[in-house]
Amino acid sequence: MQIEAEAPVQEPRSREGDGIVLRDVERRFGRGGVEALARLSLRVRGGEVLAVVGPSGCGKSTLLELVAGLQQPDRGTVSVLGAESPRGRRDLCAYMPQNDLLLPWRDALANAALALECQGVGRREARRRAEPLFERFGLAEFERARPAELSGGMRQRVAFLRTLLAGRPVLLLDEPFGALDSITRAAMQEWLAAALGGEPRTVLLVTHDVEEALLLGDRVAILSPRPGRVAAELEVDLPRPRRRRKLVGDRRFTDLLGRALDQLEAGSA
Amino acid sequence: MALLAAWQGVASLDSVDDLTLASPVETWRALRDDWSLLFDNAWVTFTEVLLGLGIAVVAGVVLAVAMHLSTALRDAAYPLLVASQAIPIVVMAPLFVLAFDYGIGPKLAIVALICFFPITVNVLDGLRSTPPELLKLMRSLGASRLQTLRRVELPASLPSFFSGLRVASSVSVIGAVFGEWAGAEKGLGRLVLLGNNQLQTPRVYAGVVLLTLMAVGLFALATLAERLACPWNRKEAHA
Q1: Per the CB 3.0–4.6 Å rule, which of A8, A140, B96, B179 could disulfide with B107?
Q2: What does the domain layout of chain A look like in residue ranges?
Q3: Number of CB pairs < 8 Å for A and B?
Q4: Average pLDDT score over residue span A209-220
């Protein structure tokens, strides 16, 4: 068990300069050796949000699990704030999977507090520490609701709070809104953009939605189809806070969108 | 109701011997007249069933968790587990009585032997059916093996446990009866056996009715316990 129980949960500020570095990473699966990632090199600067976009099956989830320390590359190195061992990476990353994966027998608050319990914090204390975040992220009064009673968007918020409460300096988000309908997704993207604005952490976000990437990312990396490689990187120099409503009329946004889509099409042609 | 009427009808036929089939009315009369005798014996059997089930639950869950945590143990123990159910209990029961004497011991052993199997198999399945993504999440949250077991796998396997318990509770009564047939001083099983030998057919039927009620009651209790323990698992939960 870790003795990190007493560590502050709120502000694990990433230092500028040290981020996530992947160097010539290769990853194969199965006996036939299907190549998921081929000589992928990528860098996420400390404190920035990097959105990785790619067609489905290009190894996006594999990429996240590699960084999270849940998988090891067959070749190349992965380093998170200087840590290269899987254990070291796991301790620095909070991973938010595609599905909310909330436990149906726990209420919303206990689900978010699970992250603290895994660090050895007692049940009651974990609930107490999770409570202020519910207010801050628009979930007040839903603390005692079971996941089945929450809408898809709310469940995703609870899952995000659980990720935050893990108290790690690096957030890894795997298509966080992929399972939501497009209206809810749009609302959740703005919500997440605002939430990340107040959280000075290093974020690696994976998505197949180019607009989502431009809305949330400081930079966007475009992956080629399997085996995944970085086909292009775009700097998203749009002012924050970004709101979908304003971006739609913004020339810079439409330019970036066009360039990103061109790259994606070039890759899959 | 229709079943009862048919039963009464067939039993009243002249071609059906009263000694082979007691009518519902006769059974009811036996229940009423011999109530204190039946109740005393039923209580003995009920105690055997409950204690045996209790042992089966503890042993079954412990074994399932151990087999879940250790692949080596699982591979080694699974064939033995299946084999334990192939043992013909009727043949083994007298040996149990020889080994444990006439008391409650052999009955508990037999009930537990029959009942732990469905519990172990179901709990083990429940533990193993935890979605891999959930295990991945727990790993990324830095959870220890024990934390994952306590916070995720065990609660997730509760519905499976109750499925096992329901099966176990419905066969537990049969176990107690076998145990008593092999040698007992009291109990419904023994009473039914004696009644058979003494051609007291209505009493035999009364005993069987009570045994059936016992099994059905335990089954219902297990179902109720599941509803209370796993409210999230109800099918009619909001979408």
Answers
A1: B179
A2: 18-101+170-268
A3: 59
A4: 89
B148 closest CA partner among B133, B165, B162: B133
Which chain A residues are closer than 8 Å to B136 by Cβ?
A: 65, 70, 95, 97
Cis peptide bond prior to A73, omega within 30° of 0: no
Statement: residue B66 has pLDDT above 90: yes
The beta strand positions in chain B, using DSSP E, are none
Contact yes or no for B232 and A166 at CB 8 A: no
Cβ atoms of B173 and B192 within 8 Å: the answer is no
What pLDDT, in 10s, does the model give residues B148-175? 999 999 999 999 999 999 999 988 888 8
B28 near B84, Cβ under 8 Å? Answer: no
CB of B147 less than 8 A from some CB of A = yes
Pairwise CB contact (< 8 Å): A101 & B131? yes
Q: Which residue of B has its CA nearest to A66?
A: B140
Question: Which residue of A lies nearest to B155 if distances are taken between CA atoms?
Answer: A105
How far apart, in Å, are the Cα atoms of B205 and each of B18, B45, B171, B208?
Answer: 12, 16, 19, 5
What 3-state class would DSSP assign to A22?
strand
Residue B237 CA to residue A149 CA, distance in Å, equals 8
Mean pLDDT of B32-60: 87
Mean pLDDT value across residues A190-201: 80
Minimal-distance CA residue of chain A relative to B132? A101
* Mean pLDDT value of segment A126-147: 87
What is the phi/psi pair of residue B179, to 5°? -60, -40
CA-to-CA distance for A123 and B213, rounded, in angstroms? 42
List the structure tokens of B161: 């446990």
Which residues touch B83 (CB under 8 Å, ≥6 apart)? Answer: none
Cβ separation of A119 and B155 shorter than 8 Å?
no
Q: How far is CA A178 from CA A101, A156, B123, B208, in A?
A: 13, 10, 33, 58
Contacts of B230 in chain A (CB under 8 A): 105
Task: Report the residue of chain B nearest A61, measured CA to CA.
Answer: B133
Query: Which amino acid, one-letter code, is at B24?
Result: P
Secondary element (H or E) of residue B110:
helix B105-128
Min CA distance, B138 vs chain A (Å)? 8
Interchain contact, B143 vs A65, CB within 8 Å: no
In CATH, the number for domain A18-101+170-268 is 3.40.50.300
Q: From the CA of A175, how many Å to the nearest CA of chain B?
A: 14
Q: With a cut of 60, say whether residue A2 has pLDDT above it.
A: no
Pairing of strands A219-223, A202-207: unpaired
Distance CA A11, CA A6 (A): 13
Do residues B224 and B234 make contact, with C-beta atoms less than 8 angstroms apart? no
Q: Is A41 a residue whose pLDDT tops 70?
A: yes
